[in-house]
Amino acid sequence: MSRGKQARVTAEHAPPVAAVRAGSRRASAFLARRSLAAHRRSWAAVFAAAGAAAALLGAFALVLGSLLLAGPPVERYAGADAVVAADQKVSYTAKPWGSEPRTVSAYLPERVRLDRALVARAAAAEGVASAVADDSVPVAVGDGAAATARSWESAALTPYRLTEGRAPGGAGEVVLDADAAPAGVRPGDTVTLRADGAARSYTVSGLAEAAGGTGSPAVFLTGARLTELAGHPRTVDAIGVVAERGVSAGALRDSLRAALPEATDQGRAVRVLTGAERGEGERVDALGGRGDLLALLASVAGTVVMVALLVIASTLTQAVHQRSGELALLRAVGASPRQLRSAVGREAGRVAAVAAAVGGLGALPLGLLMRSLLETEALVLPVPPWLPLTAGAAGALLVALAARPVAMLAARRVTRMRPSAALGAAGAPEPGDPGRVRTVAGLLLALAGVSSAGLATTQGGQAAALAASSSAMSLVVAVALLGPRIAGVAVRVLGAPMRRAGGVSGFLAARSTAAHTRRLGTALTPVVLVAAFVCVQLAATSTLERAADRQAAAALRADLMVTAPGGLPSEVAGTVRGVPGVAAATGVLRSAVVLAHREAGEPVLDRLPVLGVTPGQLEGTLDAGVTAGDLGDLRGTGTVAVGADRAGSLGTGVGDRVKLRLGDGTEVAPRVVAVYERALGVGDFLFPREALAAHVSAARDHAVLVRTDGTDRDATAAAVRDALAPYGGARTGPATDDAVRTAPAVSGEDDALMVIGVGVIGGFALLAVVSTLTLISVGRRRELRLLRLVGAGRGQLTRMLVLETALVAVAGLALGTLVAAIPLTAFSVALAGSAPYMEPARYGALVLAVVVAAVAGTLLPARSGR
To answer: What is the pLDDT of residues 779-789, one digit of tens each?
Structure first.
């Protein structure tokens, strides 16, 4: 028979391609079902890791989604149909290297005010029943309780109603709400209020209460008196608008937009806020805080995705490698590579799908817990019904989609073998060589991590933090890829001490770890991950706090300070200067500026906290560590002092001008009169107080720094208290670093992010340690039973496992600490100019947590094998 005829006959009798593929799929499905039943304990560890990863990813998706929808609550303007306010956003456009121009935006930290003439124009708009100018003035009531003063006309915007008495009829009368009224006060009584000046007595004409409650105590004065206290008669904070009956929100918005100009005299857009947007008119910096929080949480979420994928990949890879012999045997008896890869992928996909579904359900309580840590009075984080479902599904889908390709890739080496070679590999020990491609990739990532750390030392601010974070992640992934080689080094370093200290058990532990470096490398990866991540999170914060505390303490030369709830009037510093025994007194006003600049070619708007100080006696109370110029020249509205690092990044020096936007968006270019080195303690910019006073929401000093002449500090403090008695509520005590810190040492946001970053993500990493070591321990039960059969005692095996656990914990912690130390050192040198620091107690807690997790993952699952 000719070859052509034979081929035609063969083709005629060959089964259809579709039938072959269907048979292959049935065979793969059969293998997957049988393998799932036979390896339930191994897949349980994968199930735990995948479920936890899905829960964590879904929780972060929920929190990020809630933050994107977040806004300030509507309290003060609950009775208004619309609020007219100035736009609080600023923009900056620049052309990055080799790209199209980009525009970035930021929210201003101080209120931008409107021309008071707009009140009449709003009132004349069609469909408007009334328009009320609304100003806020911080005041102290009685012995110093903080409250907000408003005009009685604006009480209708909440709304408030009188419960006793009547509205204020003159400059000396006041209406108090229930939260602001001292106990037992009734109409006709007198109450002391302090605003921007000495305290003054007012007659209580009435008591009021809000219909729905408000966020802060309020007192109400006549409109004329409030305008006098506010100190800006030509401008107004906002305008509250009440519509005529039957006018819709959309119609009112259109009417007001037609009646009002598009922008203020300063070029700021005029906004008409309705519905939930009205809250933006109450708390002007709430959305700015949301933006800062979103940026921080998004960077943490990126780390979470990397950590979750790394844990899933590590766990799945170990589960597949433990079955190398089984897969090789199946290959030897005729299973095709496609069938084996499909079977392994089906197993992993099914386990991951069920785990992801369970984890998606767990994302809801975890996400709500994280959300509760971030929610504040100024920012409400909504959770619409669709958000938990979407977030949980997103986390579950990512885990489910990642599992199958990872498992199939892990099985690639065995499934590509020829049947004859696979038969020999079926009984061979697992390979320790990670492979050339994996080794090269690991070395390249390690080099990239070290390079990123080096780059961080040349950067500042956010660029340095991003470079350090990138370095840490690159190094952790490099450790995962180079795990077997690193494990071999660890065995050579720690093997000899382990043999000497452990006797027979030490010999067994050393030989076992040396023979299974791939397994040991897999065990090290989650330990390195948790150690590196927790160290970076804790040490970065501790390093900056410690450096800032030291610089603030070194800068503070005052020995007394004066504070008061709601701040101090501007004249207090002058009053204190005249007290006998006072050598110097400086008022400190807190604000913020917006700096437009470029980082790595990208346009950036940084919101930076700053201090405004009263000149004249500044050198007696504050030593910023001047390296050039003179703080004595810090006078008027056109001068500024700049921190040395910031001056270096901007390329400015004494005599140059630096372009800034003040807290209310006013563009200025003050002349640099001094450069100082203690910027972490006192901020990047120091202004004369008068340069900031007209551009803050409330021109109240945070504190007055007082330096005594050294004769009798207690007597001087008593004299200061007596001199400030007319101001009511002023407190005099020892000076602390917080007086000159531009921001609190640890804010509520920092605490929340610390709990989320260390508690939630660190907890997940510890769970990865337990699940990975449990998976390894389950795969070793046959090995342990064989050791028992050849004569090893239970005690010897227990000591062997203890020594192996100690090796994993010690090597993992040492390597994780080293991985963290490289980017941390770069970060600390760039931003703090010092070595990284971590509190010993925190590191001790990390060591304890890792040891407990290692013991739980190694000794407990291995008991049945002994």
So the answer is: 777 777 777 77
Instruction: Work out the number of other CB atoms within 10 angstroms of the CB of residue 372.
Output: 10
* Model confidence at 330: pLDDT above 90: no
Q: For residues 6 and 22, what is the distance between their CA atoms, to the nearest angstrom? A: 26
CA distance 327 to 341: 10
Q: Is pLDDT at 1 greater than 50 in this prediction?
A: no
What kind and span of H or E run contains 239? strand 238-243
Q: Single out the residue of 89, 118, 127, 119 nearest to residue 106, CA to CA.
A: 89
Q: Residue range 750-754: average pLDDT?
A: 67
Among positive and negative, which fits the CA dihedral 755, 757, 758, 760? positive
For residue 101, whether the previous peptide bond is cis, meaning omega lies within 30 degrees of 0, is no
Q: How far does CA 575 lie from the centroid of its chain?
A: 42
Q: Which phi and psi angles does 617 have, rounded to 5°?
A: -120, 25
Strand-strand pairing, 200-210 and 173-177: parallel
Quote the crossing angle between the two packed helices 483-515 and 517-555, to the nearest 10°. Answer: 130
Q: What are the beta bridge partners of residue 599?
A: 602
Yes or no: say if 355 and 392 are a contact pair by the CB < 8 Å rule: no
List C-alpha distances in Å: 592 to 70, 491, 606, 757: 23, 54, 10, 27
609 phi/psi in degrees, rounded to 5 = -70, 140
Strand partners of residue 685: 642
Q: Is the pLDDT of residue 236 over 90?
A: yes
Helix (H, G, I), strand (E, B) or coil at 707: strand
Cβ-based neighbour number of residue 550 at 10 Å: 16
DSSP 801-854: HHHHHHHHHHHHHHHHHHHHHHHHHHHHHHHTSS-----HHHHHHHHHHHHHHH
Residue 432: its H or E element: none
Residue in the block written with tokens 């201090």: 611
Q: Which residues pair with 90 in a beta bridge?
A: 106
Whether 634 and 624 have beta carbons less than 8 Å apart is answered as: no
CB-based burial label for 258 (10 Å; 0-12, 13-18, 19+): exposed
Separation of alpha carbons 773 and 770, rounded Å: 5
Query: Which amino acid does the sequence have at 841?
Result: A
Residue 613 is inside which H or E element, if any? strand 602-613
The pTM is what?
A: 0.81
The candidate with the shortest Cα–Cα distance to 780, out of 527, 498, 496, 430, is: 430
Q: Which residue has the tokens 């007290």?
A: 579
